[in-house]
Amino acid sequence: MNKLKLKSMLEQFFLEDLGDGDLSSQALFTEKDQSRFHFIAKEAGVFCGGEIILTGFHTMNPNIDVKVHVEDGNRIGPGTLIAEIAGPSADLLQAERVILNLVQRMSGIATQTAAVVDLVKDYPVRICDTRKTTPGLRMLEKYAVRCGGGFNHRNGLYDAVMLKDNHISFKGSISTAIEEVKAKLGHTVKVEVEIETREGLAEAVESGADIIMFDNRTPKEIEEWIQEVPAHITTEASGGIQMENVAEYARSGVQYISLGFLTHSAKGLDISAKVLK
């Protein structure tokens, strides 16, 4: 994770929440008032967000004392002590909600990812995320997927070519799209092509695709069609895949399964800040 980028993000998140100042805390506390609280897990899951806690509170006030007791990617249960935080009362309260929101979301994504990874652990397949992330939170959400045992697909439009159905429709054919992309980009950039038909698969293979994504195909179709993919081409499945059928797709022989719901539908893990007297 890029810590400089993280600090900048947290500053913006705090500014959004604070505006011109915290009316509640400013009315109740002076700079001399000190408090402490614990972050406690209220349900089982996979923790993610230690650096958020450390960097977040230190961004608000570098003199806040922060001790994180759980490593990212570790499984936790109800009552697990995640962190201890102590410092000026107003600063603790001003940072608490933003930090908890992020840690709960990231831990929820890590937990959901780990559950999917567990379902396919007997197969040589990798579970990946997609670009279906919350705007502004992609770095954090993709990091959470890794903490849950998953892998990242491309980070954005800038680090890999992915020719989807609309790209192909606009250009007229798979072969034309691949030819034009490969003529203009460097040799280190891989080209992935989304296919929906057997004819499209043959065209993608013939045109030199590096990665073939079977989009919205059934496990049975993939199992049959994948026999026509040369060993040097990477295979991926996406679309219509859920917890209930992910193991069927893993059995099809595909190498990667990309899932939007890892990030766009994850439920935040319940974590609270318990004030210590």
Give a short account of the largest sheet.
6 strands, parallel
Strand content: 15-25%
* Sheet/helix structural class: alpha/beta
CATH class of the largest domain: Alpha Beta
Share of residues in helices:
40-55%
Order of helices and strands: HHEEHEEEHEHEHHEHEHEHEHE
Structure described in brief:
This protein has helices at 3-18, 23-28, 50-60, 89-119, 138-147, 165-171, 174-184, 198-207, 219-225, 246-250, 261-264; strands at residues 34-41, 45-46, 65-68, 75-76, 81-88, 126-128, 161-163, 191-195, 211-215, 234-238, 256-258, 271-276. With 277 residues, the chain is α/β, with parallel strands linked by helices.
Topology:
Elements: H1 3-18, H2 23-28, E1 34-41, E2 45-46, H3 50-60, E3 65-68, E4 75-76, E5 81-88, H4 89-119, E6 126-128, H5 138-147, E7 161-163, H6 165-171, H7 174-184, E8 191-195, H8 198-207, E9 211-215, H9 219-225, E10 234-238, H10 246-250, E11 256-258, H11 261-264, E12 271-276
Descriptive keywords:
alpha/beta, Aldehyde Oxidoreductase, domain 3, 2 domains, elongated
